[in-house]
Design goal:
Length: 196
C-alpha cells in the first residue's frame, strides 16, 4: 500500500490539464475584460472626434447644415464602430464661454443663498423660471458659445460585465463647446423675473 501511495504521489501525468483548468477561467476573464475596456475606449474616442468635427462644421459662417444633418454625421461615425448604439443629442447656447453651465444671476435680498421669496433674477434663457443652468436649448445664434453633448448607449461587446456585477450596457458621453461664427449681431436680450 505504501508503494502504491508513493507511485501515485510521484506521478505527474495530467497535472498540466488540472493547472490549465484552474488558470484558464481567470485568464479568459482578464482577456475579455481588457478587450471590453479597449473597445469602449476606442468607441469613446471615435465619438469625441466625430462631435468635434460636426460641431466645428456647424459653427462656420454661412454653414447650411441643420442640427439633424450634424447629428447624422456623428451617428454615422459611431454606427460604423457600434451598429446597435442609441444616441441622444443635446445643444445649449450661452452668451459666452464663461457662462457655460453657470446659473442665472439673481439678487439674494434675504441672504439665504437661494433664489426664493420673490427675489429678482435675470432670465437669460427666457423660460420664465430661475435655472441652475442659464443655457438656451438649441444651436443659438451669432457669437454664442454652444455646448454640444452626445450620449451613446450600447450593449457591451463582450459578456464579461454581468459576471463581475457590471451593467450589460455601456454609456459614453462626449461634450464640446464652440463659438458660432460672427455672421450676424449677437442677441443678448434677456428678461427679468422674480423667484418663487
Amino acid at each position: 500500500m505504501r508503494r502504491l501511495a508513493s507511485r501515485i504521489a510521484s506521478d505527474t501525468r495530467g497535472a498540466t490539464i488540472v493547472e490549465f483548468a484552474l488558470v484558464a477561467p481567470v485568464l479568459l476573464m482578464a482577456t475579455m475584460g481588457i478587450f471590453d475596456l479597449g473597445y469602449n475606449t476606442y468607441t469613446t474616442a471615435m465619438l469625441q472626434g466625430s462631435i468635434q468635427q460636426a460641431a466645428r462644421g456647424a459653427t462656420i459662417e454661412g454653414s447650411q447644415m441643420q442640427s439633424a444633418q450634424l447629428d447624422a454625421i456623428v451617428a454615422s461615425a459611431v454606427h460604423a464602430v457600434v451598429p446597435g448604439a442609441t444616441m441622444t443629442f443635446t445643444r445649449k447656447s450661452y452668451a459666452s464661454f464663461s457662462k457655460v453651465g453657470q446659473p442665472e444671476d439673481y439678487t439674494d435680498v434675504n441672504g439665504d443663498g437661494t433664489c426664493d421669496a420673490g427675489e429678482p433674477f435675470e432670465d437669460a434663457n427666457r423660460n420664465g423660471t430661475w435655472d441652475r443652468d442659464r443655457g438656451r436649448s438649441g444651436q443659438g445664434g451669432a457669437r454664442d458659445a454652444v455646448l454640444y453633448t452626445v450620449d451613446v448607449t450600447y450593449p457591451r461587446a463582450f459578456p464579461i460585465a454581468p459576471l463581475i456585477g457590471m451593467s450589460p450596457t455601456f454609456t459614453a458621453r462626449a461634450k464640446t463647446v464652440l463659438r458660432n461664427q460672427p455672421y450676424n449681431v449677437q442677441d443678448q436680450t434677456s428678461v427679468t423675473g422674480n423667484c418663487p
